[in-house]
Automatic annotation (TrEMBL):
Gene3D superfamilies: Spore Coat Polysaccharide Biosynthesis Protein SpsA, Chain A (3.90.550.10). Pfam families: Glycos_transf_2 (PF00535). Residues 13-161 form the Glycosyltransferase 2-like domain. Residues 300-331 are annotated as: Disordered. It comes from Wenxinia saemankumensis. The lineage of its organism: Bacteria, Pseudomonadati, Pseudomonadota, Alphaproteobacteria, Rhodobacterales. Signal peptide: none annotated. It comes from the Bacteria. InterPro entries: Glyco_trans_2-like, Glycosyltransf_2, Nucleotide-diphossugar_trans. This is Succinoglycan biosynthesis protein ExoM.
Length: 331
C-alpha cells in the first residue's frame, strides 16, 4: 500500500511540547500556512513529558487539519533529547522548528522558503515577537526584550534560535550533528548548535517577514526573570569561542563591558526603562564571563520521565556536544 502523494518539496515542521495545551493553536497556525506551489508540509510533534500530557491536545487538533501530523513521545524533560529525536524522525531534506507556545503568521513558512531559495542559505531565521498581556509594565513593553530577533555581527549571521528557523538538514557536513544534551535543561542548546553548524560551513540568512508570535506569561513580567534570561543568553553566546585563548579574550572583554554597563546603570537611576536596559546588558555580559569560565548553568527547563519538575536550584555543567540521539517511544 502506497502512502499519500507528496509535493515535490516537503518541509518537516518539528515541534517539541512539554505540558502546554496551547500546542493545539500552534498546530492550527501551521495548517493555515499559505504555501507556494510545489511546497508541502508534514508535522512531527515530540511530547517531552513522559506522562504523555500532550497526546490529547495534539491528536484532537490533528483531526481537523489538512496536513499530516505525527505524534511521538519521549521522556526526561530534556529539550535537546526531544529535538534530536525529531531530527532522527525527519524524512525531508528541510526541517522547520517551532516552539509549542508560538503562533505562526500565515506567510511564515513561505517567507522562510523564499529567502532560502533566493539566497542559497542553509538555514533561515525569523523573528519571534512577544504578545504582552494587559497590565504589562510600560518599561517592559518599551524594551521588548522578550522578543527574539536574529542578528548579524559584522554582516554575518553566526547563530540563532530554534523557535523560528528553516534548516537544510541533509548536508553531509552537518547531517549527523545534534543538540547538546548537556544544555537541554539549562537553555542555550540551540545557540550552541547553530554556532557549531556555522563553523562546519553552514551559511545563515534572516527573513524579517517570517514572523511568529509568542504570548508572554505573567510570571515572566519582571526584572528578575529578564536578568536570569540575559545572563543565560550570555553563557550561551560564549559557545562561539572555540579554544581556551579565545574564551579568555571573550571573557575579559565581557568583564570590561559589564563594568561599563554597571556604571551606566547608575547614571540612569532616574529612568526606569534606561536603568533596566543597562542593568540587563550588564547581566548579559556577566553571563558571557561565566560561559567563558565554563561555570555551571542553572537548570531551567523540563522534568524527569515521571513528570516531576526540576529542582529550581540545580545546576549543570555542559559536556561535549552530542551527535545522533536515541529515538523516541511511539505515542
Amino acid at each position: 500500500m502506497t502512502g499519500p502523494v507528496l509535493p515535490p518539496v516537503t518541509v518537516d515542521v518539528l515541534i517539541c511540547t512539554f505540558r502546554r495545551p496551547q500546542v493545539a493553536e500552534t498546530l492550527r497556525s501551521v495548517d493555515a500556512q499559505r504555501l507556494p506551489a510545489g511546497l508541502g508540509l508534514r508535522v512531527v510533534v515530540m511530547d517531552n513529558d513522559g506522562t504523555g500530557s500532550g497526546r490529547v491536545p495534539v491528536l484532537t487538533a490533528a483531526r481537523d487539519m489538512q496536513i499530516p501530523v505525527r505524534y511521538l513521545r519521549t521522556g526526561g524533560g530534556n529539550i535537546s533529547t526531544a529535538r534530536n529525536a525529531l531530527l532522527d524522525e525527519a524524512q525531508s531534506g528541510w526541517v522547520a522548528f517551532l516552539d509549542d507556545d508560538e503562533v505562526a503568521s500565515p506567510h511564515w513558512l513561505s517567507s522562510l522558503w523564499r529567502c532560502a531559495t533566493a539566497t542559497g542559505a542553509d538555514a533561515v531565521f525569523g523573528p519571534v515577537l512577544s504578545v504582552y498581556p494587559p497590565g504589562t509594565p510600560d518599561w517592559i513593553r518599551q524594551l521588548d526584550l522578550h522578543s527574539s530577533r536574529p542578528v548579524r555581527r559584522a554582516g554575518v549571521v553566526e547563530t540563532g534560535i530554534a523557535g523560528n528557523v528553516l534548516l537544510r538538514c541533509d548536508d553531509p557536513r552537518w547531517s549527523g550533528e545534534r543538540f547538546d544534551v548537556g544544555r537541554g535543561r539549562t537553555g542555550g542548546e540551540d545557540t550552541e548548535f547553530f554556532f557549531r553548524l556555522h563553523r562546519l560551513g553552514a551559511r545563515f540568512e534572516i527573513a524579517d517577514d517570517a514572523d511568529v508570535h509568542e504570548p508572554v506569561s505573567p510570571d515572566r513580567l519582571g526584572f528578575r526573570w529578564l536578568a536570569r534570561r540575559r545572563y543565560r543568553m550570555g553563557q550561551s553566546y560564549a559557545a562561539r569561542a572555540s579554544g581556551r585563548a579565545e574564551r579568555l579574550r571573550l571573557g575579559a572583554g565581557a568583564a570590561a563591558k559589564a563594568t561599563a554597563c554597571g556604571g551606566m546603570t547608575g547614571l540612569h537611576a532616574l529612568s526606569r526603562a534606561r536603568r533596566a536596559a543597562w542593568a540587563l546588558r550588564a547581566a548579559l555580559h556577566l553571563g558571557v564571563v561565566a560561559g567563558a569560565l565554563s561555570l555551571p548553568q542553572r537548570v531551567s527547563y523540563g522534568g524527569d520521565a515521571s513528570g516531576q519538575d526540576p529542582d529550581p536550584g540545580a545546576t549543570t555543567r555542559p559536556p561535549a556536544p552530542a551527535r545522533r540521539g536515541r529515538g523516541p517511544d511511539p505515542g
